[in-house]
Design brief:
This protein has about 290 residues and is an alpha/beta fold. The protein is built from eleven helices and 13 strands. The structure holds 1-O-phosphono-alpha-D-glucopyranose.
């Protein structure tokens, strides 16, 4: 068994990033010179995924447009000798199969994942929330390994200060975290009050799920915020079978709001082989000017 498919829920309206997201989907906002969505796909491919299912809204056709052939651009690049960029353009959507499902009436993350059911089929699959950039495939690859080894679903975890838990799904751990960062989970709750939170371990936007989750999603009733919550479907799985979390202290950027997006851009720019030195000098100049 191998985890081959990744679902990327991308039907949200990006209201935290208006007015930029009025005409440009937040998933296509550039992280330096690459759309955020491309970095999410690269992370999935790096973990062994070869089929991406994007759950889109019909109001965001530019996401499909990003994967369309672009012969005019490629011809122009080739004619001007920019062969490497031409090849990068060709590779978009070629090196990995990309399919689309549609969520025209956003009713929550559980509902969004449920929209991918027919394209995923009866196999374990990953879910990557595109607002969150992880910087590497290591966490997702480790989660896929745990799913294959245990036959149960797996969530990505991060430890946060107690007063921050209310914005997230929070897990009830079983025992201690092992040397690989893996821990059993018996239950979880979506956006609890701080006083009711079962731990300080939050679910980050990475999941590797067994396909029985689709039946639990189909049975969902509105939960926190009146939405069909993925966390509530995962509770059903955790109650009956093996369910694990993988804890990493990853550099995680929330690119769905302006400050998180800017942090991701600056971090990536400083590390960039071509732009890094210039960006550092420019930032130092800006910070040292009166
Ligand atoms: C979603 C999930 C939540 C998870 C979070 C991670 O919440 O419902 O369990 O902790 O993503 O970012 P949202 O950010 O969509 O409110």
């Amino acid at each position: 068994m191998q985890v081959r498919t990744a679902v990327i829920p991308a039907a949200g309206l990006g209201t935290r990033f208006l007015p930029a997201t009025k005409a440009v989907p937040k998933e296509l906002l550039p992280i330096l010179d690459v759309p955020a969505l491309q970095l999410i796909i690269d992370e999935a491919v790096g973990a062994g995924i070869d089929h991406i299912v994007i759950v889109n809204s019909r109001t965001k056709p530019s996401i499909e447009a990003y994967f369309a052939d672009a012969p005019e651009i490629i011809d122009k690049l080739v004619a001007s000798g920019r062969i490497e960029m031409a090849e990068q353009m060709r590779s978009i959507g070629r090196d990995v199969r990309v399919s689309f499902a549609y969520q025209d009436n956003p009713r929550g993350l559980g509902h969004a994942v449920g929209c991918a059911r027919d394209l995923v089929g009866d196999e374990p699959f990953a879910v990557l929330l595109p607002d969150e950039l992880m910087g590497s495939s290591e966490l997702l690859a480790a989660m896929c390994d745990v799913c294959v080894a245990t036959g149960g679903s797996v969530v990505g975890l991060k430890r946060v200060p107690r007063d921050e838990v209310s914005a997230y799904g929070v897990i009830t751990p079983i025992g201690e975290i092992d040397a690989d960062g893996v821990i059993g989970i018996s239950d979880m709750v979506e956006k609890p009050a701080v006083a009711d939170a079962p731990s300080d371990l939050i679910i980050i936007g990475r999941y590797v799920l067994t396909p029985d989750v689709f039946d639990a999603i189909a049975d969902l009733k509105p939960g926190a915020g009146g939405e069909l919550q993925l966390t509530d479907a995962l509770r059903v799985q955790a109650a009956v079978g093996p369910f694990h979390g993988v804890l990493r202290d990853v550099a995680r950027f929330d690119t769905g709001n302006p400050v998180g997006w800017l942090s991701a851009v600056v971090e990536l720019a400083l590390d960039h082989p071509q732009y890094g030195v210039g960006v550092r000098a420019e930032l130092e100049r800006i910070l040292s000017s009166p």
